[in-house]
Amino acid sequence: MESTELPVKDTRKPIEIIQAGLAKRKAAEFRFKAYGLLAVTAGLAFLAILFITIVGNAYTAFVQTQIKLEVYLDEGLLDPEGKRDVDTLSSADYAAIFRSSLRELFPDAKSRRDRRALNGLVGRGGTYDLRQMVMDDPDLVGKRLTLWVPADDDVDMLMKGHIERSGPQESRRLSDKQLVWLDQLEADGRLKKKFNVDFFTKGDSREAESAGIWGAAVGSFYTLLVTLLLSFPLGVAAAVYLEEFAPQNRWTDIIEVNINNLAAVPSIVFGLLGLAVFINLFGLPRSVPLVGGLVLTLMTLPTIIIASRAALKSVPPSIREAALGVGASRLQTVTAHVLPLAMPGMLTGTIIGMAQALGETAPLLMIGMVAFIVDIPQGIFDPATVLPVQIFLWADSPERAFVERTSAAILVLLCFLIMMNALAVFLRKRFERRW
Questions:
Q1: Is 51 helix (H, G, I), strand (E, B) or coil?
Q2: Quick one: how far is CA 361 from the chain centroid?
């Protein structure tokens, strides 16, 4: 027969058993807190690395290398007939003005190859700036001017330390002669790094030294303006009806479920919907803020409706009962009492939805806002792009100068998002009421 062992009796006192259990629970609690602290620390560390990387690549974009040149606006070259005709001035060869000024500084560059290398020190953006200056004031023709013109992007990268001077000439984008000329310009005080005003005042350009974010910023403004003017009243009206007036039946339940589901739909689906409906069906133009605002309105409506309904639910029922008790109608109760108290929460949800719309790229790519836009849009019907799409375009450019501009644009976009979220927090803290 098999022997059966009797269970060993715990000889510890009850207080000892309780203390042992408390020790295990405290150890488990300590481990749980440690895991949570480790997760938070890791998240903050990755966020810090990301932010430091962006700032490290971006801060050099806020300065631009410029070359000081004395230029003579030769009337025989710009306006031979002397009529100051707009078409003549617009089509003149302004690049020749800079070429002549550079040859005066370096007369030893006589061969065709050397002159091409010398002319390559100045960016093409200076040519457009000079033409615009003459178009604005034709009386400048025939005069001498001292101008700071943007240097070529390779020169800019050299001055910022992104191109090594050492090594064989074949491995560099700048020749030995160009380095000698740049050293002479720097020694004469003609080569300096200055605040990059063009980055904040110009539109996109294929030349990195002339590319700016102002066109994309204006496009984002018009797109968000259309989004706000459509999504806020529609979202608030839908939330008020569903929460205050709609009967509780199967149809309203279906609507509520679909609204919650739409909030989780990928944003590119809204872009496909906008392409099929607004562009293909209604015939609206592509790449305009109006269509972009319509698409982003569809995307942000579920967020605004859900936030607005939550704000309405937070208003105590006693407010409604008191208003109805003194003879107010249902509509008067909602408009005069419930809606003002819920408005801070609605505004907070709207700002969060707008911040989400500001950072969207995929739906706008589908409606053509990825186009290369140089001119600054003047309205909601002008071709435009937005900041996230501009970042997408620059990130795809092979030039090293566009890397820093991509990071700088990301930094500007993050600043806008932080300001919008800070505004949402301020509104919630400023107007929030605790019941």
A1: helix
A2: 10
Tokens of residue 256, six digits = 């509520």
Residue entry with tokens 């259990």: 21
The whole domain housing 317 covers 214-431
Q: Which residues contact 371 (CB under 8 A, 6 or more apart)?
A: 286, 287, 383, 385
Its pTM stands at 0.85
Residue 379: what residue type?
Answer: G
Q: How many domains would you assign to the chain? A: 3
Query: Do residues 195 and 354 make contact, with C-beta atoms less than 8 angstroms apart?
Result: no
CB 212 within 8 A of CB 201: yes
3-state percent helix, strand, coil for the chain, nearest multiple of 5: 65, 5, 30
Instruction: Specify whether 178 is located in the same domain as 242.
Output: no
* Alpha-carbon gap, residue 190 to 197, rounded angstroms: 18
Taking the chain (435 residues) in consecutive chunks of 10 residues, what is each chunk's mean pLDDT? 56 69 82 93 93 88 91 86 84 88 88 89 86 88 89 89 79 86 91 91 86 92 94 93 88 88 87 90 89 93 92 88 87 88 88 88 86 86 91 85 90 89 81 66
